Amino acid sequence: MKAIVTNGYGGADNLRLLDVPQPKVGPDQVLVRVKAAGVNPVDWKIAAGGLDGMMYVHFPLIPGWDAAGVVEELGADTPEFSVGDEVLGYVRRDEVGHGTYAEYIAAPARTLARKPAALGFREAAALPLAGLTALRSLDRVGAGDGETVLIHGGAGGVGSLGVQLAVLRGARVIATASERNHEFLRSLGAEPVTYGDGLADRVREIAPDGVDAALDFAGGGAVHVSREVLKDAARSASIADGDVQKLGGQVVWVRPDAAGLAQLAELAAAGKLTVHVDAALPLADAAEAFRRSESGRTRGKLVLDVP
């Protein structure tokens, strides 16, 4: 099968489209023919060695944790699925090596959910990691009806879904982004503010009494701004800055969650949650996808089409 491979830590230039063996299918796994793979910042961070102190990484490495496709083969004990099922998954294992930038993946059943027919493969591949991260973050801070939530990085893959999920819960959302993304945030139901110096003051202009919860999907010191405007320091979470714990908040690291993924997929299929795909590139252009993701200027998500 064809897959994107890197043989050592490095940047986008290390990626190659190669022929590799099709994966073996374990007893609790299904073989998925990948139609689209989601691109996330964690993919290029792993490939560059940024998570070496946290996770075992095996080379040759196939990047990627997000995928949507069709079940082609069942493991010995996978009654949840049938051959021909369309699925999406956050296919993360404890060790990194066999990722989703490939024609086929052997996916643990616990990482998958059925893809609703009304949800396209590209949107389905863009949803898992970002959607589950946003969902877990909101659950951790307890954001709910009638509360004001500050979201840093509101126009990105996680942030754009977090904004919508918070609005669906009845929250008022203030979200940071560059000015070019303000209209996009308004379309999602958020009140946009420009990030950078003076952010805390700009947030106070909108919410003079402070905010009830804050989610950092951007890094760059955003957790310190959150602390300035939060009513309760414990209701802060970050996926990008460990300093949040020193300030009384929580670090979020998303987990595979089939039930949560099914919930997100149904919301998207029903038109209640928009998965914004900024661009879809061919699998062979994974290096370009890495570069675009690294730029930090992506609105929503990038995906790879797998032929």
Quick structural overview:
With 307 residues, the chain is of the alpha/beta class. 29% of the residues lie in helices and 28% in strands.
Describe it.
This protein is an alpha/beta fold. The protein has 2 domains: 2-127 and 275-305, Quinone Oxidoreductase, Chain A, domain 1; 131-251, NAD(P)-binding Rossmann-like Domain (Rossmann fold), CATH 3.40.50. The protein has 10 helices and 17 strands. The protein has helices spanning 41-47, 121-126, 128-141, 157-168, 182-188, 199-206, 222-229, 243-246, 258-269, 286-295, and strands at 2-5, 16-19, 29-39, 56-62, 66-74, 86-90, 95-98, 104-108, 112-114, 148-152, 172-177, 191-194, 213-216, 236-238, 250-251, 277-282, 301-305. The strands form 4 sheets. Strands 3, 5, 6, 8, 9, 16 and 17 form a 7-stranded mixed β-sheet that branches. Strands 12-11-10-13-14-15 form a 6-stranded parallel β-sheet, sandwiched between helices. Strands 1-2 form a two-stranded antiparallel ribbon. β10 (148-152), α4 and β11 (172-177) form a beta-alpha-beta unit. It is globular, with a radius of gyration of 19 Å. The N and C termini lie close together (11 Å). The model has no long low-confidence stretch (mean pLDDT 97). This is NADP-dependent oxidoreductase. Residues 10-304 form the Enoyl reductase (ER) domain. InterPro entries: ADH-like_N, Chloroplast_QOR, ER, GroES-like_sf, NAD(P)-bd_dom_sf.
